[in-house]
C-alpha cells in the first residue's frame, strides 16, 4: 500500500512542482488517446474508484477542488489520476478585495534585498498568467514572488479563467471548467443579446469661448463595451451619478487608467485624437461632456450596449392545485426595473419588442394518493375533461368622461375561471391563469378635447368719444374644428363690454378774450354735429385738415365716406357713394388764422421780389402746414400780394401776375413714420350658412416716404397698437335642414342572410353654431337598413368523366377532376362589389402563379390542373364566405377518394355558415351529383343511373376525413362563457324528410325520416341534446322503451346498440327494423322528445315512379354558356302525373345542367372599368376601353372591328369627373407704383399672394412653387426721373502744398427741377463732393541763421523751427 501511495505521489508531483511540464503532458496524453482503439471501459481497467472531492481552495469568488484515484496494476494504467472542478462560485463581499492582491500583500513583511515594500499585483503578463508577479507600490520595481498563484486565482481580472496548479484553465461564464459558455454583449451568460441594445452615433458640439461646456452623451448605469473617440482639441469631462444621487466629475487630460463611478476605464490622448474604452458594466450613470479647448470643432463618435431597463423575470411556482391525488402548479413572469429591482406593470416590458415574456412552466405536484381513497388520482392539466383555467372578461363600462385631453377610463371585470368535468364554471385564484396574458381591465377612452368656447376679435367701439360698447362673436368649437353645441353656458365669454375712447366729447372752456375769438363762422364749424354710421347707408365726414395757411385766409379739406353699420359685429363698412342718399357734406371750406404780423421774405435765389417804384409786390408769407407728420412731407411757400408801404396783404389782382415767384417746396418731417398695421382685403366666407369664417392677412409696416410710397415690412413686435382681427364671422344664418347618416353597423348575422342598420336623422345647423333636430318629414330620406352581402353557392359534387378543355363550376361544392383541365370557379354574390372578392387556398393567400388568377367578376381561374392545385379554396365577400374542395382523379397515383388530411387551419377555412360533421353527410337534400362535362347525346343529359352514381361516389368518398365534410348550420351569437344557467333539455333535430338513400352505411339525425333498403348494412341515428345539467338519453321504438339486454328476447337485441354519445346504432338493417324511433332527453328541469320514422323496402315494386319530362328553358340565348335541365315527374303505373309526395319512397334520379344554345351571339359593345380621374383635384376626365366583341359558340369572346357593332349605340369612353377642390393662388390688386427706383423710369410695385383652398387660407397645402404668381414687379413711373446736380467748387483750403475743396451735390427731378431727398437718387452714382487742390509744392526760405543747428539737432518736427527753417528742414527730409 505504501508503494502505491508513493506511486500516486510521484504521479502527482509534476502537477504541483513543475507546472511548465503540464502542457507537454497533456499533449502526450491527447496523442495517446487518439491512438487508442479500445472502448472507455477498457481504458478504465486498472484504476481504483475516484476519491471524494477535496476541500475548495477558496470559500468564495470561485476556487478549485480535486479528486484522486490510484492505479492498481503497478503504474501502467492509461489516463489521469487527478481531476478538477470549480467550487465556491458565489461572489466574495466587496470589502474582501482582490484574491491576487491578497497574495501580494502577504509579502509586505518580508524584506526583499534588505528592504520591505508594499506589494500590489503587477500588470497582466500573457506569457506567465499564473505566476505571482507583484509591483512595489509607487515604484517601477516588479518581482516574481512565487512561481504560481493559489488555485482559484483569476488568470486576468476581466475573465473567468482561473489558475489551477499553476496552469491557466478555461472557465466558462457559468463558472464551470471547459464548458465553453460565453457572455453575450449584454453580460448574460449564454444569452442571445436580447436584453440590451446597440447605441452608436456621432456628435458635433460646436463649442465657443462663451459656451465652453456642453453635454454630448448620456450613458446609463449597466452599459457595456463603451468606446468613445474624439477628434479635436476639446477635453472630455465625465460626470458620474450614482443611484443615490452622488455626483463626481473628472476631466480626462492625460493618458492612463481611471476609476470613475466604480468603473475602470482606459484613456489615451494623442495629438489630435482621444480614445476612451471600458468593458463595463458601468457602476453609475455617465454624463459625458466636452470642454472648450480651441477654435477647431471636435467630432465625437461613440458606441456602447445599453441595457433594457425593464425585463421579465420568472417567479417561483404557485401553490399546487390540489393537496393530494396529483395536481399541477404554474409559475409566471414579472416585469422588473433592473435599476431599482422593483416590480412594475407589464406595459413597461411590452414597450420593448426584444422582450419576450417567458411561457409559464407547468409541473406535477402532490402526486401522493389522498387518504381514504381507492387509489391514485391523476389530474392532467391538458385533459379534455378538465381544461386549464382561463380568463373571462365582462363588458366595458361606460367611459368616465365624455371628452377631455387626458381622456377617461372604462373598466371591465376580469376573472380566472375553471371548468370542471361536468362543464360547470367556477371562479378560482388568479395565479392559475398566469399561463396566458391577463386581459386589460382598464383602458383609456374619449381622449379627444371637449368642445370649448372660442372668442373672435373685438369690434371697434360704437362711439368715437367717451364711453361706448364693443362686440365679438363667441363660437362653440369641437376637436375637429366644427361649430357644435355642448359647451357649458356658464363658461361662455361675454359677447359685449364697455369701451372708452380717450377723446373728450365736450368743448373745453374758452380761454381767449372776446376780442381774440375766431369768427363766428369758424366756431359754427367746430360745433358741427358728429356723424356716426347707422344701419342705413349714410355719408360720414372725416375731420377737417389744418388750415392751408398759418396766417391770413386759407382753405380746409376733409374726406367724406359712404358707410353702413353692421348690427351684429358692430363694425363700419365702406360703400360706394351711390349707395348713400341725400346731399353729400361739403369737402372744402375757407379758414383764417388772423392777419400775418410781418412778411417773411425768402430770397434764396438772390433776386428782388419787387421794384422800388412799385407800390404792390409779391412777398413770401411763411409756409403751408406739412403735408405729412412723418416720412418726408412737403411744405409750399405762401405768396401774397403786399402793399409795400403799409406791409399789409391786399388782393392778388393788384400785383403783376407775370412777376409772381415760382412755387417753392421744401421737405418737412423727414423721419420715418412709426410702425403701423396694414391689412389685406377679407377672403370669401368659408360657409354659406351657419357660421362661416373670413380671414385676412395683417402685416406690420413702416412708411419711409410719403411721396414715393416706400413701405418696409418689419417685425410684428414693433407695432404696439392693437392688432387688427385676422378673422371674423360671416353668413350667420340658419342652414336648411338636411339628413345626416352614421356609418353602417355590423351585420346582424355572422352567417346567412342578415341586415345592416345605420342611424338616420335630420339636423339643422343654426346661426349660433349649434345643431338642432329638423323636421322628420323631410324628403327624400336615406335608407337606414339594407341587406348584408350574401353568396349564392351551389352545393354540388362534380365528377369529371372525360377530358375537357375548360369547366365552369360554382363555389360551394366538391370537384373531382382530371389533370390538365382548366377550371373557372364562380363566386356569385349579392350586394357586394365583385372587384373586392378575395380567394384563399388552404387558409392562406393564393400562391403567385401564372396558372392561378382572379377575374374581374371575382371568379377563380386555374389553368391546366396539377397535383399541387388540390386543396380547399375559399371565396370571401365581406362577412360572407364559402369554400370549394378540389381533388384530382389519379393525378399522383393516389385514390381520389383519399384527400389529404386537413391542416391545423381547417376550422378557419370553413365557410361562414358551415360546420363539419363527424360522419359522411355529403349526399343530402340540396346536394346533388353532377357528372361533368355533360354529354351532347340524349342519353348523356343527366340521365345517370342511381346505381352508377352510388358506386362512383362511394369509391371517392368512403375514406374521406370527417373534418373535410361540412353541412350548413346557423351560428347564433356567442354567449359569454361562464357558469351556465339551468335550462330545459332540447333535442336538436330536424323535421324534414330525406329521400331513400343507396349507401350501405347511413348516418342521420333525429327528426329526419329515412327510407332504406335491405342492402343497408348499418344505420346511426344521432340525438344531439342540449341542457343544463346535461340530460340523459333514452330510446323507444313505437312507444316501447328500448333497454339493453344480453338475452335474445330482450327489447334491444344485439343488432341495435345504444352508444355512449347517446346515438342509436342499428346493424344489418332489415324489414323488422322499420318503425318510429323516439329519443328522450331528460334532466332535473324537464324532458324533450324527438322522433324519426324508418321505412325499409325489400324487393317489392312501387306503384309510383319518377320519369324524365321535357327540358326547361335555356338560361341564355347564345354563347355556349346557357344550360337547361330535364324535368322529373312523379307518375303512376299508367303514366299519369301524380303529386311528388307519392314518389317519396322511390329514389329520385339526379339531373345535371346540360349546355344549350351554343350558337354565336350577335356582336355587341363591351366596356372595361373606368380609370381613375385624371386630376387629383378639380375637374378632370376618366376613361374606359370600349370594344366590339362577340361571344362565339365555344364560349370564347372575340374582338371585332367597330363596324360590326354599328347597329347599336356606342357607349361613351370618356366622362368628366371631379375630385377635391384644388388649392389656388389668390392675388390682391397691384399696389401703387411707388417702390424703390431701379432706373430712370423704373420702380417696384407689390401685391399679396396667398394660397387658398375652398376660399380659406391653408398654409399646409401649397401649390407647386413653379406656378406661384410673382408678388413684386417692375413698373414705370416718372418719379424716378431724377439726377444728381453738382454745384460749384468752393475755394481751396490752401494756396499751395495740397489742400481740399468741396461742393454741394443735390438730388433733383429732371423735369421739374425740384430738389428731392438724397435717397431718391440712391440708385445713381453720386458725384464726389470734395477733391484735392493746389497740390503744387510751396517755395520756402530759412529766416534764421541757426537752421543748420536745428537740422543737426533734429528739431524740424517742432512747428516753430519747421516754419523758420523751411528750406533746411526740406533738404534734411530729402537727404534721408
TrEMBL record:
PROSITE patterns in alphabetical order: IG_LIKE, PLAC, TSP1
Compartment list: Secreted
Residue ranges constituting the PLAC domain according to the UniProt record: 1336-1373
SUPFAM superfamilies: Immunoglobulin, TSP-1 type 1 repeat
Gene Ontology biological process: extracellular matrix organization
InterPro entries xrefs: ADAMTS/ADAMTS-like, ADAMTS_ADAMTS-like, ADAMTS_CR_3, Ig-like_dom, Ig-like_dom_sf, Ig-like_fold, Ig_I-set, Ig_sub
Identification of the protein by name: ADAMTS-like 3
Organism: Astatotilapia calliptera (Eastern happy)
Name of the encoding gene: ADAMTSL3
Amino acid at each position: 500500500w505504501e508503494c502505491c501511495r508513493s506511486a500516486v505521489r510521484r504521479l502527482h508531483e509534476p502537477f504541483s512542482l513543475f507546472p511548465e511540464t503540464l502542457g507537454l503532458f497533456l499533449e502526450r496524453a491527447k496523442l495517446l488517446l487518439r491512438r487508442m482503439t479500445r472502448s472507455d471501459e477498457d481504458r478504465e481497467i486498472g484504476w481504483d474508484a475516484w476519491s471524494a472531492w477535496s476541500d475548495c481552495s477558496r470559500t468564495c469568488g470561485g476556487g478549485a477542488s480535486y479528486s484522486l484515484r490510484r492505479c492498481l496494476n503497478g503504474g501502467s494504467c492509461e489516463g489521469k489520476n487527478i481531476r478538477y472542478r470549480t467550487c465556491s462560485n458565489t461572489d466574495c463581499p466587496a470589502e474582501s478585495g482582490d484574491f491576487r492582491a491578497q497574495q501580494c500583500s502577504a509579502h509586505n513583511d518580508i524584506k526583499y534585498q534588505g528592504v520591505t515594500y508594499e506589494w500590489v499585483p503587477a500588470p497582466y503578463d500573457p506569457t506567465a498568467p499564473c505566476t505571482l508577479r507583484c509591483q512595489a507600490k509607487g515604484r517601477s520595481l516588479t518581482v516574481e514572488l512565487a512561481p504560481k498563484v493559489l488555485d482559484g486565482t483569476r488568470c486576468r481580472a476581466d475573465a473567468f479563467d482561473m489558475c489551477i496548479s499553476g496552469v491557466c484553465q478555461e472557465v466558462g461564464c457559468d463558472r464551470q471548467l471547459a464548458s465553453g459558455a460565453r457572455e453575450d454583449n449584454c453580460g448574460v451568460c449564454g444569452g442571445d443579446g436580447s436584453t440590451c441594445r446597440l447605441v452608436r452615433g456621432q456628435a458635433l458640439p460646436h463649442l465657443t469661448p462663451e459656451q465652453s461646456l456642453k453635454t454630448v452623451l448620456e450613458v446609463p448605469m449597466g452599459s457595456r463595451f463603451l468606446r468613445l473617440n474624439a477628434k479635436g482639441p476639446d477635453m472630455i469631462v465625465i460626470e458620474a451619478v450614482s443611484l443615490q444621487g452622488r455626483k463626481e466629475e473628472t476631466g480626462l487630460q492625460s493618458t492612463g487608467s481611471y476609476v470613475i463611478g466604480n468603473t475602470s476605464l482606459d484613456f489615451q490622448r494623442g495629438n489630435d485624437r482621444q480614445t476612451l474604452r471600458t468593458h463595463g458594466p458601468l457602476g453609475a450613470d455617465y454624463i459625458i461632456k466636452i470642454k472648450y479647448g480651441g477654435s477647431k470643432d471636435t467630432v465625437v463618435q461613440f458606441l456602447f450596449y445599453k441595457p433594457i431597463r425593464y425585463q421579465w423575470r420568472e417567479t417561483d411556482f404557485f401553490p399546487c392545485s390540489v393537496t393530494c391525488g396529483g395536481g399541477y402548479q404554474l409559475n409566471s413572469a414579472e416585469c422588473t426595473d433592473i435599476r431599482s429591482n422593483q416590480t412594475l406593470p407589464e406595459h413597461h416590458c411590452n414597450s420593448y419588442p426584444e422582450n419576450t415574456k417567458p411561457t409559464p412552466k407547468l409541473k406535477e405536484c402532490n402526486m401522493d394518493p389522498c387518504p381514504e381513497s381507492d387509489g391514485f388520482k391523476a389530474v392532467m392539466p391538458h385533459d379534455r375533461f378538465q381544461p386549464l383555467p382561463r380568463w373571462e372578461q365582462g363588458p366595458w363600462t361606460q367611459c368616465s368622461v365624455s371628452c377631455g385631453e387626458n381622456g377617461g377610463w372604462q373598466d371591465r371585470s376580469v376573472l380566472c375561471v375553471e371548468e370542471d368535468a361536468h362543464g360547470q364554471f367556477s371562479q378560482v385564484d388568479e395565479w392559475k391563469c398566469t399561463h396566458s396574458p391577463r386581459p386589460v381591465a382598464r383602458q383609456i377612452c374619449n381622449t379627444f378635447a371637449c368642445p370649448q368656447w372660442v372668442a373672435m376679435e373685438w369690434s371697434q367701439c360704437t362711439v368715437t368719444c367717451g364711453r361706448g360698447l364693443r362686440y365679438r362673436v363667441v363660437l362653440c368649437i369641437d376637436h375637429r374644428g366644427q361649430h357644435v353645441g355642448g359647451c357649458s353656458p356658464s363658461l361662455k365669454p361675454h359677447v359685449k363690454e364697455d369701451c372708452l375712447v380717450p377723446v373728450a366729447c365736450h368743448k373745453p372752456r374758452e380761454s381767449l378774450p372776446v376780442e381774440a375769438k375766431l369768427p363766428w363762422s369758424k366756431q359754427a364749424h367746430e360745433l358741427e354735429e358728429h356723424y356716426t354710421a347707422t344701419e342705413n347707408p349714410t355719408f360720414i365726414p372725416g375731420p377737417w385738415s389744418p388750415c392751408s395757411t398759418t396766417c391770413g385766409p386759407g382753405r380746409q379739406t376733409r374726406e367724406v365716406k359712404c358707410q353702413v353699420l353692421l348690427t351684429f359685429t358692430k363694425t363700419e363698412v365702406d360703400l360706394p357713394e351711390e349707395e348713400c342718399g341725400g346731399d353729400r357734406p361739403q369737402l372744402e371750406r375757407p379758414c383764417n388764422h388772423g392777419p400775418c404780423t410781418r412778411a417773411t421774405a425768402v430770397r434764396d435765389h438772390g433776386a428782388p421780389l419787387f421794384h422800388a417804384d412799385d407800390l404792390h409786390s409779391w412777398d413770401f408769407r411763411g409756409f403751408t402746414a406739412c403735408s405729412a407728420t412723418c416720412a418726408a412731407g412737403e411744405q409750399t411757400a405762401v405768396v401774397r400780394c403786399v402793399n409795400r408801404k403799409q406791409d399789409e396783404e391786399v388782393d392778388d389782382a393788384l400785383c403783376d401776375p407775370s412777376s409772381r415767384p415760382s412755387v417753392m417746396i421744401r421737405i418737412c418731417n423727414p423721419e420715418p413714420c412709426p410702425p403701423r398695421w396694414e391689412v389685406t382685403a377679407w377672403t370669401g366666407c368659408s360657409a354659406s350658412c351657419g357660421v362661416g369664417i373670413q380671414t385676412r392677412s395683417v402685416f406690420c409696416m413702416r412708411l419711409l416716404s410719403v411721396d414715393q410710397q416706400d413701405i418696409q415690412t418689419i417685425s410684428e413686435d414693433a407695432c404696439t397698437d392693437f392688432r387688427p382681427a385676422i378673422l371674423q364671422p360671416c353668413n350667420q344664418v340658419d342652414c336648411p335642414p338636411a339628413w345626416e347618416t352614421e356609418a353602417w353597423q355590423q351585420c346582424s348575422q355572422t352567417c346567412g342572410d342578415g341586415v345592416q342598420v345605420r342611424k338616420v336623422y335630420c339636423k339643422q345647423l343654426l346661426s349660433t353654431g349649434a345643431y338642432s333636430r329638423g323636421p322628420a318629414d323631410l324628403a327624400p330620406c336615406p335608407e337606414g337598413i339594407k341587406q348584408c352581402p350574401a353568396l349564392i353557392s351551389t352545393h354540388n359534387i362534380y365528377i369529371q368523366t372525360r377530358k375537357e378543355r375548360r369547366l365552369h363550376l360554382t363555389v360551394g361544392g366538391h370537384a373531382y377532376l382530371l389533370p390538365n383541365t382548366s377550371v373557372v370557379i364562380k363566386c356569385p354574390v349579392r350586394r357586394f362589389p365583385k372587384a373586392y372578392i378575395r380567394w384563399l387556398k388552404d387558409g392562406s393567400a393564393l400562391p403567385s402563379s401564372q396558372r392561378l388568377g382572379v377575374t374581374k367578376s371575382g371568379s377563380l381561374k386555374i389553368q391546366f390542373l396539377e397535383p399541387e392545385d388540390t386543396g380547399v379554396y375559399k371565396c370571401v365577400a365581406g362577412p360572407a364566405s364559402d369554400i370549394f374542395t378540389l381533388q384530382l382523379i389519379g393525378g399522383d397515383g393516389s385514390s381520389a377518394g383519399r384527400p389529404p388530411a386537413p391542416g391545423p387551419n381547417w376550422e378557419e377555412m370553413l365557410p361562414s355558415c358551415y360546420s363539419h360533421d363527424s360522419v359522411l353527410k355529403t349526399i343530402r337534400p340540396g346536394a346533388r351529383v353532377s357528372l361533368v362535362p355533360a354529354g351532347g347525346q340524349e342519353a348523356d343529359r343527366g340521365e345517370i343511373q342511381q346505381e352508377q352514381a352510388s358506386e362512383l361516389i362511394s369509391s371517392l368518398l368512403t375514406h374521406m376525413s370527417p373534418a373535410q365534410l361540412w353541412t350548413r348550420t346557423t351560428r347564433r351569437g356567442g354567449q359569454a362563457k361562464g357558469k351556465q344557467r339551468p335550462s330545459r333539455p332540447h333535442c336538436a333535430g330536424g323535421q324534414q324528410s330525406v329521400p331513400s338513400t343507396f349507401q350501405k352505411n347511413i348516418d342521420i339525425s333525429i327528426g329526419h325520416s329515412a327510407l332504406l333498403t335491405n342492402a343497408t348494412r348499418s344505420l346511426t341515428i344521432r340525438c344531439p341534446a342540449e341542457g343544463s345539467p346535461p340530460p340523459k338519453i333514452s330510446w323507444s321504438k313505437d312507444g316501447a322503451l328500448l333497454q339493453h339486454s344480453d338475452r335474445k328476447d330482450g327489447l334491444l337485441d344485439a343488432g341495435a346498440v345504444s352508444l355512449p354519445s347517446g346515438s342509436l346504432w342499428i346493424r344489418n338493417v332489415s324489414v323488422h327494423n322499420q318503425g318510429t324511433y323516439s329519443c328522450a332527453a331528460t334532466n332535473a328541469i324537464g324532458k324533450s322528445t324527438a322522433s324519426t320514422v324508418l321505412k325499409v323496402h325489400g324487393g317489392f315494386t312501387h306503384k309510383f315512379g319518377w320519369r324524365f319530362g321535357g327540358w326547361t328553358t335555356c338560361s341564355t340565348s347564345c354563347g355556349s354558356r346557357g344550360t337547361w335541365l330535364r324535368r322529373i315527374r312523379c307518375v303512376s303505373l299508367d303514366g299519369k302525373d301524380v303529386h311528388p309526395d307519392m314518389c317519396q319512397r322511390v329514389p329520385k334520379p339526379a339531373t345535371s345542367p346540360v349546355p344549350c344554345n351554343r350558337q354565336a351571339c350577335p356582336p355587341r359593345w363591351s366596356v372595361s372599368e373606368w380609370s381613375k380621374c385624371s386630376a387629383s383635384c378639380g375637374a378632370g376626365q376618366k376613361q374606359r376601353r370600349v370594344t366590339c366583341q362577340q361571344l362565339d359558340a365555344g364560349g370564347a369572346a372575340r374582338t371585332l372591328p367597330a363596324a360590326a357593332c354599328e347597329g347599336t349605340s356606342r357607349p361613351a369612353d370618356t366622362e368628366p369627373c371631379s375630385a377635391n377642390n384644388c388649392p389656388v393662388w389668390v392675388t390682391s390688386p397691384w399696389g401703387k407704383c411707388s417702390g424703390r427706383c431701379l432706373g430712370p423710369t423704373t420702380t417696384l410695385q407689390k401685391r399679396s399672394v396667398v394660397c387658398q383652398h375652398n376660399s380659406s387660407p391653408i398654409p399646409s397645402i401649397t401649390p407647386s412653387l413653379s406656378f406661384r404668381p410673382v408678388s413684386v414687379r417692375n413698373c414705370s413711373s416718372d418719379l424716378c426721373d431724377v439726377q444728381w446736380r453738382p454745384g460749384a467748387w468752393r475755394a481751396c483750403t490752401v494756396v499751395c502744398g495740397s489742400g481740399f475743396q468741396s461742393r454741394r451735390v443735390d438730388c433733383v427731378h429732371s423735369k421739374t427741377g425740384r430738389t428731392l431727398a438724397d435717397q431718391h437718387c440712391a440708385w445713381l452714382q453720386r458725384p464726389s463732393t470734395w477733391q484735392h487742390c493746389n497740390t503744387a509744392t510751396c517755395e520756402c526760405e530759412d529766416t534764421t541763421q541757426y537752421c543748420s543747428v536745428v537740422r543737426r539737432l533734429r528739431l524740424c518736427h517742432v512747428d516753430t523751427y519747421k516754419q523758420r527753417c523751411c528750406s533746411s528742414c526740406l533738404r534734411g527730409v530729402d537727404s534721408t
